[in-house]
Amino acid sequence: MGRPKVKLAWVEERKRRATVCQRRMKELIQMAEELTIVCDMSACLVFYNRKNGKLVAWPSLEEAQSLIDCNNALPETERNMKADDEESSFIKTITKEIEKKLELSRKAIEELKMDNLMLQIKNGSRMIADLSQTEIEKLKSYTSKKIVYYDRELRKQHPNTSGNEPFLEDDDGEMKTYEGESSESDGADNA
């Protein structure tokens, strides 16, 4: 369970404020120390109290100064680039994920439109002759993709069939039956 949210506000009482400050500084130092171990990187923390001029540095004032000097020695463009690099990398990752989701959504919408169009044609509310050239091309593309998909699925379920022979016919041209089904229709459709 996570730590409850603390309302950030000025602590009026001086002794309590000093205690809160010490506790929070200790927590930050512990987190920074863990980060340096886990990520194998250098880090420093510097706390400065403007009222009394007190400076606290972790791990030491010399190491903190050394890290700050290393950072300041870099050209400004490189410093800014390194600072933005992690943020821009995160943004690029999120952008790619969103673009992928958007593309999947577009494909799903297009499939729904084609399913709806096929249903309209089946129900007679639209005629093939009334379709635009674009709709016809999209419908042809969609149905051919569906046929390929279902062909693959059927071949996964029945891997012993070759690609050249009809899937549901015997060598005699009779319909194949599976799991006790009869090839005789008795004049009724079993749907």
Automatic annotation (TrEMBL):
One example GO MF annotation: DNA-binding transcription factor activity, RNA polymerase II-specific
UniProt keyword DNA-binding, yes or no: yes
Domain of life, source organism: Eukaryota
Alphabetical UniProt keywords: DNA-binding, Nucleus, Transcription, Transcription regulation
GO biological process: positive regulation of transcription by RNA polymerase II
Pfam family, one: SRF-TF
PROSITE patterns (UniProt xref): MADS_BOX_2
Region Disordered, annotated ranges: 153-191
Composition bias, Acidic residues: 181-191
Main location: nucleus
GO cellular component term of the entry, any: nucleus
Locations listed in the record: Nucleus
Annotated MADS-box domain residues: 1-52
Coiled coil: none
Name of the protein described by the UniProt record: MADS-box domain-containing protein
